[in-house]
């Protein structure tokens, strides 16, 4: 196995470990702690850039950066639009940077599929909870897990 593959594998492991910790925390406490999100974004970003350089795929590093900015910006708009109603949280915006980074590395198709999958999966779960009588319109639903599941779907589809 070459160095680029090992570094890319380390990026996947870091993303996965952070993802598991974030899913557990968001489901239990409805928050995505900066202490996990920010270092994970830095570590995964650094590893993806290093893997791009080692593999000669510098465009993948650009895609990762563009994905982080695009998805992070989209979530920032959603957060700003829903501030009065308590929709998207600030942690979701920061997590969108990490998810966008990861998906952007895989390309525009993965970014689009992964971002859309988060909303489809989250919406389906909300509908199921409403239909089962386990939630109503005011029930908070952690969205971070669906963002991270979408990050898994995007690369698998593309």
- Assembly state: single chain
Structural class of the helix and strand makeup?
A: mainly alpha
- Report the helical percentage: over 70%
Count the strands? 0
Beta-strand content estimate: under 5%
The general outline is: elongated
Number of alpha- plus pi-helical segments: 6
Q: Using the CA coordinates, give the radius of gyration.
A: 16 Å
Low-confidence stretches: none
Mean pLDDT: 96
Describe the main β-sheet briefly: none
- Rounded to the nearest angstrom, the distance between the terminal CA atoms is 24 Å
Q: Can you write the helix and strand succession as a string?
A: HHHHHH
Any descriptors?
single chain; 158 residues; mainly alpha; 6 helices
What does this structure look like?
By secondary structure, this protein is mainly α. It has helices at residues 3-29, 34-55, 58-81, 90-106, 108-131, 144-157. Helix 3 (58-81) packs antiparallel against helix 4.
């Amino acid at each position: 196995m070459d160095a680029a593959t090992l570094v890319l594998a380390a990026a996947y492991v870091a993303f996965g470990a952070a993802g598991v910790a974030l899913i557990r925390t968001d489901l239990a406490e409805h928050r995505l702690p900066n202490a996990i999100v920010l270092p994970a974004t830095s570590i995964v970003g650094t590893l993806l850039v290093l893997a791009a350089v080692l593999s000669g795929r510098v465009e993948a590093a650009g895609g990762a950066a563009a994905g982080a900015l695009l998805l992070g910006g989209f979530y920032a708009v959603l957060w700003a639009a829903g501030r009065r109603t308590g929709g998207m949280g600030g942690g979701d915006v920061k997590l969108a940077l990490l998810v966008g980074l990861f998906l952007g590395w895989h390309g525009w198709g993965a970014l689009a599929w992964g971002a859309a999958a988060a909303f489809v999966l989250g919406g389906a779960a909300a509908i199921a909870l409403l239909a089962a009588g386990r939630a109503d319109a005011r029930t908070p639903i952690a969205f971070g897990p669906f963002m991270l599941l979408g990050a898994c779907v995007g690369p698998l589809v593309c």
